[in-house]
Structures are given as C-alpha cells and as structure tokens.
C-alpha cells in the first residue's frame, strides 16, 4: 500500500526518486504552477522552455519527465498538466486528477515528492486523495513482475500550515484507503467473492474498526421472511446474506442508512444475459462495496452521526432451484412481487433491505446500486443518476456529488411510469414496468418499499461504477468506488447540521 506523508522541506532539498510539479496552459504558453519555485530556480528559469521543447503543453492528463538539474536532490522531475492556468488557485478536481496521473506514472518508484500547488488544507487533501487513488493497482491475480505502486508519496507543505496539512493528509488517507478497499472488492473475481466471503470481510473490518456487524444467513433470512433476497439467491450454490454494519457516535443527533446492492455475480438468472453482457457482472456488487466503504470511512473520521450500511448480498444464477419469470415473491414486510424478468433482480434485494433499514427509523435512507442499463443509456459511463422522494434531498445529493468531484444528475420519478408496474393481475407489484424510462421505473419500484415519513434517495451508479476503458486522472481501469465520496461528504454535512 502506498504511504502518504507531509514534509516541510523544500523541493530542492528533499531526497526522493522523483519530484512532481504542476504545469498549466497560460495565454502565452506553458506556465509552471506554484509550489515549484525551487525547481524553477534550479533550472535557472529555463524549466518552462525545456518542458515545452519536450512537448509539454500543460493540458489535463499530461505527464512529461525531464532529468533533474543541479541543486535538486531528486534525479527526476515529472511535470503533470493542470489544464488552464488559474491565478486564483486550481480547483480540487484538477489537483486530484494531476496527482492521480503523477502517482500512476511513477509506478515502480520507491519515493516521490509532490510539489503541486497547495495553498490550503483543502488543496492538500485533494492532492493526497488524488495521489492515493491514482497509485491504486489490483494485482491479486497477476503472477508477473509488473511495476508495484509507488511506495511513498511525500506532500510538500509550508511550515506555517503543516499541522493542518497533516490533518488533511490523514483525512485523505481514511477516505482513499476505503475507496481502494471498495475497488478491491469490485475487482475480485466472483469465484472468490460470494455473499458469504463478502460478509466475512465485513465482519473482519468491523472487528478492526470497532463497528457492530450482524449477518443474516439463509436460515435467518428464511425465518425473517426476506423473500426478495432469497428469491434472487435461490438459484446459486452460494446462499445469500443480509449484512448490517453499524457505526454509532455518542454525540450523534441524526442517523443515516446506506443500502447497497450486492449481487456478487449477475448472470441474469433464468432471464440469462447474452454473451457480451455478462463478462463484467462481478461488478454488480459495487453499491454494497460503496456503502460498506462509506461507513468504515465515517468511523475512521469520527463523524458525529450514526451511519448504518445494509449490504444485500446474493448471487443471481440459473438452476433448477432458481426463481422463474412468473413466480411471485413475498417480500420482507409483506408485499408481493410478480417476477417478470429475473435479470431485474437488484431491486428485489434492495427492497427487502430498504424495508429492514426503515424499521430503525433513520432520518434518511440512501440506496446505491448498479441498477439499470437504462441509466447508462441516459447519462453515459461517468455520471450516476439521483432520484428521491424529496426534491430537497435529491438536490442536496447532486450538489454534494459535484462538490467532491463526482458526476451526477438529478432524475425524476414520474407518477405515470408507476402504472405499468402496479398492474400485475396476481401480485401487489411487478418487478418490471414500461421499457422506456427503465431507470426511473426501477426507482419508482424501490420507492414503494420506503416507510412513510422517511426521506429516501436512490443513486444508480451503473455507468461509473466500473471503468471498462483506460485509466484517466485518478480513475483506474475496473472498479472505481463510485459514490463513496458523495456518501462520506453527505454524512459529514449531516453531522454538521448542514
């Protein structure tokens, strides 16, 4: 794991294998960003010219290496692009992305120093988080001698603000390490991660961090009447689980419930997915990974709010015991659902968990799920949809996501789309409705299971949860830990009464 630290040494005197600086696109060409003054001096004012000669423009995502100059202890200087030059300071997302590019570029290096513009503790946190996320690599199944992630990243800070900088780095580490835990879970092969093993991981984390963890196995789920989770998991040799991970603070004045879809592998069940649509379905538990990571991060940060994660874990497989299209499930809480498509399974496990979460009367329930392909068609691969039974809550979550650098978009829950879903002739609801607007129909289905008087929101992260393209910024190929930062910031704001 990459280590993070803070140093008040100058960029010239710190011993490291590489020194990272920021560059940007100025009106008259490349400019060197603040933080690299000692490096500019070592190059006797020619650094911008040298980098330009090597092809650097300062564009976002760019990384250009240059041998160091006399007077610098580090033998290599890496210039990373920040985009357009900003006299008033660079925004947090630009810093996160640049730090992420630097960390990924320096894979194999033992120690690197970051002399990026950090005029505030918020800037330090952005650089630290971006660097930690950019250094991430999943090598569990690799047997070759690939480059290891950069061993240590040292953030250079002014002596005057070093205390705040160290606190910012510690905070970034808590969030970044839990995001990387979520990424590991999403990237783990489904023959290794099933409901039982996921539950065991949650139990181990609970023991490590002092969280209360309760696991309902298939016997307890049957006794409790969790027909949705059981119905989805019936076809698999790996039985389902419902896991509760609870963090409580003695001074908390509010409580949050985060509910995550945890389909550890989704074949579609009897409504089998075609080839080309099932190869990445190990990622269908990304919602559960996100809420799990968020509650652990909340504990590590000591937030004054009670946060409970509910992991609805099942494997959706076809077999002689699998739920069939046309079956009726009696959900937790008593409602009945006619299953028209077994590949619309996420809403079934979430519904049970939402009802159970609601029994504890939290102030807000937020569910997170890779729920529908329709949301990907609507918003693309980098933006998640936000739905809610409260417009103010929907706006709050959208603004929170924007503030932490996650792309989201508020989506409606049109009452007219509910009609097709409630017209089952044999059950209270069908798990499918109109084909057009399928992502909204799924949200409307979940809304049916929210207890009266509880504010609820639904984040459909089907697009950004798993990156099938190449890495960029601090985002790797594979699991991304989508929604974790949004949930953590939402919990922080709730703790602060915002």
Automatic annotation (TrEMBL):
Q: Where in the cell is it found?
A: Cytoplasm
Residues given in the record as Mn(2+) 1 binding sites: 266, 343, 345
Where does the record place the Cytosol aminopeptidase domain? 341-348
- What's the superkingdom here? Bacteria
Q: Which SUPFAM superfamilies did the record assign? A: Macro domain-like, Zn-dependent exopeptidases
Q: Which residues form the active site?
A: 273, 347
Q: Which cofactor does it need?
A: Mn(2+)
Q: Catalyzes what?
A: Release of an N-terminal amino acid, preferentially leucine, but not glutamic or aspartic acids; Release of an N-terminal amino acid, Xaa-|-Yaa-, in which Xaa is preferably Leu, but may be other amino acids including Pro although not Arg or Lys, and Yaa may be Pro. Amino acid amides and methyl esters are also readily hydrolyzed, but rates on arylamides are exceedingly low
**Comment on bound cofactor:** Binds 2 manganese ions per subunit.
- CDD domains, sorted: Peptidase_M17 (cd00433)
Q: Does the keyword Iron apply?
A: no
Positions that bind Mn(2+) 2: 261, 266, 284, 345
Q: Which UniProt keywords apply?
A: Aminopeptidase, Cytoplasm, Hydrolase, Manganese, Metal-binding, Protease
What's this protein's function? Presumably involved in the processing and regular turnover of intracellular proteins. Catalyzes the removal of unsubstituted N-terminal amino acids from various peptides.
What is the official name of this protein in its record? Answer: Probable cytosol aminopeptidase
The source organism is Kitasatospora paracochleata
């Amino acid at each position: 794991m990459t280590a993070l630290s803070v140093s008040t040494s100058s960029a010239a005197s710190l011993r490291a294998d590489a020194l990272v600086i920021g560059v940007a696109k100025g009106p008259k060409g490349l400019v060197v960003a603040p933080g690299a003054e000692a490096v500019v001096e070592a190059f006797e004012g020619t650094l911008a010219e040298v980098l330009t000669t090597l092809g650097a423009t300062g564009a976002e995502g760019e990384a250009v290496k240059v041998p160091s100059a006399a007077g610098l202890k580090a033998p290599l200087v890496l210039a990373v692009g920040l985009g357009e030059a900003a006299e008033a300071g660079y925004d947090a997302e630009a810093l996160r992305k640049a730090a992420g590019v630097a960390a990924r570029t320096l894979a194999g290096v033992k120690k690197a120093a970051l002399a990026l513009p950090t005029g505030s503790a918020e800037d330090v946190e952005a650089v630290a988080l971006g660097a930690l996320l950019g250094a991430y690599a999943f090598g569990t199944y690799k047997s070759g001698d690939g480059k290891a992630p950069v061993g240590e990243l040292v953030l250079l800070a002014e002596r005057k603000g070093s205390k705040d900088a160290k606190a910012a780095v510690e905070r970034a580490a808590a969030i970044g390490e839990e995001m990387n835990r979520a990424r590991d879970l999403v990237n783990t092969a489904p023959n290794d991660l099933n409901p039982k093993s996921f539950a065991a991981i949650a139990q181990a984390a609970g023991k490590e961090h002092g969280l209360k963890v309760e696991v309902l196995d298939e016997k307890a789920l049957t006794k409790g009447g969790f027909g949705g989770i059981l119905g989805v998991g019936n076809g698999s040799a790996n039985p389902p689980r419902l896991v509760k991970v609870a963090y409580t603070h003695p001074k908390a004045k509010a409580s949050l419930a985060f509910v995550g879809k945890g389909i550890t592998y989704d074949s579609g069940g009897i409504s089998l997915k075609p080839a080309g649509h099932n190869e990445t379905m190990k990622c269908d538990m990304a919602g559960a990974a996100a809420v799990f990571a968020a509650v652990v991060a909340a504990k590590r940060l000591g937030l004054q709010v009670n946060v409970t994660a509910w992991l609805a874990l099942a494997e959706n497989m076809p077999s002689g015991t699998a739920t069939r299209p046309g079956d009726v499930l009696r959900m937790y809480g008593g409602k009945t659902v006619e299953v028209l498509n077994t590949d619309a399974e996420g809403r079934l496990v979430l519904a049970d968990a939402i009802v159970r979460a609601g029994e504890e009367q939290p102030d807000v329930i937020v569910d997170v799920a890779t729920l529908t392909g329709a949301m990907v068609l609507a918003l693309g691969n980098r933006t998640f949809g936000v739905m809610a039974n409260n417009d103010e809550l929907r706006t709050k979550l959208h603004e929170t996501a924007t503030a932490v650098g996650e792309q989201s978009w508020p989506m409606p829950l049109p009452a007219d789309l509910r009609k097709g879903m409630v017209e089952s002739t044999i059950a209270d609801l069908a798990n499918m409705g109109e084909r057009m607007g399928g992502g909204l129909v799924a949200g409307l289905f979940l809304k049916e299971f929210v207890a009266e008087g509880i504010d609820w929101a639904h984040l459909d992260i089907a697009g950004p949860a798993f990156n099938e393209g190449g890495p960029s910024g601090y985002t790797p190929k594979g699991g991304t830990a989508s929604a974790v930062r949004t949930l953590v910031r939402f919990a922080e704001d709730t703790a602060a009464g915002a």
